[in-house]
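Side project, low priority. Logging it here so it doesn't get lost.
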Amino acid sequence: MSNLERLSELLQSDKVTRTTLVDDTGVILHLDSLQVLTLNETGMFLVERLGEGMSSVRQLITALTEEFEVDEATAREDVVSFLNELDGLLTP
């Protein structure tokens, strides 16, 4: 299982609770570690896509470019950077 698939599975599990706020930012609580993550609109958008089962970088990049005014190269850089950071925070 890839790191991305593992993250997607974790975000769909009962080990993580996520809440989207009125301004489309959000908060994630990892229940095992009690770690709280605060996310901007883009981060929350990606977390929601992962929580829906998207499990490829390509899918996330496409979703990001369709939702926001961002070119593919920037979207790729942002997605990869975000996933690396999220993986480091949510997995032991």
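Brief comment: DSSP finds four helices and three strands in the chain.
Revisit when time allows.
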